[in-house]
UniProtKB/TrEMBL annotation:
Keywords: Aminoacyl-tRNA synthetase, ATP-binding, Cytoplasm, Ligase, Nucleotide-binding, Protein biosynthesis. Consists of three domains: the N-terminal catalytic domain, the editing domain and the C-terminal anticodon-binding domain. It is an enzyme of class 6 (ligase). Belongs to the class-II aminoacyl-tRNA synthetase family. ProS type 1 subfamily. This is Proline--tRNA ligase. SUPFAM superfamilies: Class II aaRS ABD-related, Class II aaRS and biotin synthetases, YbaK/ProRS associated domain. One of its GO terms (cellular component) is cytosol. It comes from Fructilactobacillus lindneri DSM 20690 = JCM 11027. Pfam families: HGTP_anticodon (PF03129), tRNA-synt_2b (PF00587), tRNA_edit (PF04073).
Length: 568
């Protein structure tokens, strides 16, 4: 392929407003261009990379017996209204109407659509298990699209859906898809972790997230420094260590605490460590009030609260809601004299507090000498805290560490979350109707461009793994005015293409320095420079990833490339 015939608009300067290295380099190297905030055009080089990623995905998915198909981008809103997600999904949902004033959405995901499809086509366990997938654009109206392809309003995604008649078949497909995703990411050349994930708005039970460690990642990966344990921050747990003191138990004492409003002030007033304070937070869980108790040094984990109550929405109560339900200002909220309509849950560490301090539910007053087992009633204890670095890993091996990561894939056991509400039933072996059991499996394909770039780009440009590079080899004749160079470059190009290599030849009338800079930006794995020794049949071969260069005769070029390719 001649470079002069391709749209590769490279630029020397970083684009205005770009923060992530992937965003900067994908634009500078001429791979993408912004069309509007959060939407991008994939230029020829990016499209070639996407095609290679898709072929890897299709090959691995087809090995599992999955069927590729394509669902519409525009979805009847009635599907999402029936499932309950039309309102609960949030403002990221693109909503629109047709000329007849009928509600539609642009699909951010396709659980409802595929469930309705199966509902009308599969009615017996004999047709199951079944796994179908598609590669398609998705749409989410991000409030603040940023980092280029990492958080955009339109993105390319693999989404697969499995259907089975029993949990055993779902388990088998789930395990198979986990292995399939690992094979895909390994072929692409990513550094990644499989971590325990949060199902979030998808619903369902088990889920695993695949995350690529990167400084710009918006997810926090929690992992053990001495075992395989890994989870995202919302799902991470630690080992509960009961350090309850066995000293003398004090009497409960009501103390005036004027103008004391936060944990730091309470700790100073009572001269205690924050671990001795019981923090009380009121949440609204699916429109019902819930008081959550934590040790003063801990933070609430919304995802854990949501899972405990099997809730759709969990939000911290507003000032007016606190005063309405509890009759006090937030600084004095505590687990005493609570209305029966308010559920109380407490982190398990609260139970270990001895002679602690807590709000009294009277303005400007706190209780001292609080001992939960004696003083608190109708409290359910569990894990409601957000873990911290240095906590003991839940498997008891090592301590927890944090790193940033980019979510690149996710697999879910949906169970009957969608089939039950949408009426997708099948007849089981006994002729009885039951909801079909579902799984969901997704990979952010366009996001992979950014994930790979974040991990492998350097200050000079992109560095593509050979499996997904837009071309295998970049040929650069330094001076096309010299006939020996132009002829040798074309001879090498023809020979490599005949041997099965994908080749980009820089036939532009540019200075050598410009060509070399653009070549580094583009990031093709191997560069062949046809220069001063062209008359002798000698060229220079450079590995983009390592910067290593060797001179070789043209007759040995194919063998040299094969050998060097093993180092990429």
């Amino acid at each position: 392929m001649k470079q002069s015939e391709m749209l590769i608009p490279t630029q020397k300067q970083d684009p205005t407003g770009a923060e992530a290295i992937s965003h900067k380099m994908l634009i500078r190297a001429g791979y993408i261009r912004q069309v509007s905030a959060g939407t991008y055009a994939y230029l020829p080089l990016a499209y070639r990379v996407l095609e290679k990623i898709e072929k890897i995905i299709q090959s691995e998915m087809n090995k599992t017996g999955a069927n590729e198909m394509l669902l519409p981008d525009i979805i009847p809103a009635s599907f999402w209204k029936d499932s309950g997600r039309y309102d609960s999904y949030g403002p990221e949902l693109f909503k629109l109407k047709n000329r007849h004033d009928t509600d539609f959405i642009l699909g951010p995901t396709h659980e409802e659509t595929v469930t309705e499809l199966i509902k009308g086509t599969v009615n017996s366990y004999k047709k199951l298990p079944l796994n179908i997938y598609q590669i398609q654009s998705k749409y989410r109206d991000e409030d603040r699209p940023r980092y280029g392809l990492l958080r955009s309003r339109e993105f390319l995604m693999l989404d697969a859906y499995s259907f089975s008649a029993n949990d055993g078949d779902l388990d088998e497909i789930y395990k198979k898809m986990r292995t399939t995703f690992e094979n895909i990411f390994n072929q692409i050349g990513l550094n990644y972790r499989g971590i325990i994930g949060d199902s979030g708005s998808m619903g369902g039970s088990d889920s695993m997230e695949f995350s690529a460690p990167a400084a710009v990642g918006e997810d926090t990966i929690v992992y053990s420094d001495d075992s395989d344990y890994a989870a995202n921050l919302e799902m991470a747990t630690d080992m509960f260590v009961n350090k309850k003191s066995h000293g003398e138990i004090n009497d409960l004492e009501l103390v005036d605490t004027p103008d004391i409003k936060n944990i730091k002030q309470v700790a100073k007033f009572f001269d205690v460590d924050s671990k001795q304070i019981i923090k009380s937070l009121l949440y609204i869980v699916d429109e019902k009030p819930v008081l959550v108790l934590l040790r003063g040094d801990q933070e609430a984990n919304i995802a854990k609260i949501k899972r405990f109550f099997n809730a759709e929405n969990v939000e911290l109560a507003t000032l007016s809601q606190v005063e309405n339900y509890l009759g006090v200002k937030p600084g004095s909220v505590g687990p005493f004299n609570i209305n029966a309509e308010i559920s109380i849950v407490a982190d398990e560490y609260v139970k270990s507090v001895v002679n602690g301090v807590a709000g009294s539910n009277e303005n400007d007053k706190h209780y001292n000498g609080v001992n939960p087992e004696r003083d608190l009633q109708n409290v359910h204890y569990g894990d409601f805290r957000t873990v911290k670095e240095g906590d003991i890993s839940p498997d008891g091996s090592g301590v927890l560490q944090f790193t940033k990561g980019i979510e690149i894939g996710h697999i879910f056991k949906l169970g009957t979350r969608y089939s039950k509400v949408l009426g997708a039933d099948i007849l089981d072996e006994n002729g009885r109707q039951q909801p079909v059991i579902m799984g969901c499996y997704g990979i952010g394909i366009s996001r992979l461009l950014s994930a790979v770039s974040e991990q492998q780009a350097d200050s000079n440009g992109l560095v593509w793994p050979k499996a997904i590079a837009p071309f295998d080899v970049h040929i650069i004749p330094t001076n096309l005015k010299k006939e020996s160079q132009s002829e040798l470059a074309q001879k090498i190009n023809d020979g490599l293409e005949k041997a099965g290599f994908q080749v980009l030849i820089d036939d532009r009338k540019e200075r050598a320095g410009v060509k070399f800079a653009d070549s580094d930006l583009i990031g093709i794995p191997i560069r062949i420079t046809v220069g001063k020794k062209a008359d002798e049949g000698i060229v220079e071969v450079k590995i983009r990833k390592t910067g290593e260069t060797v001179e070789t005769r043209v007759d040995d070029l194919k063998n040299t490339i094969h050998i060097l390719s093993k180092e990429i």
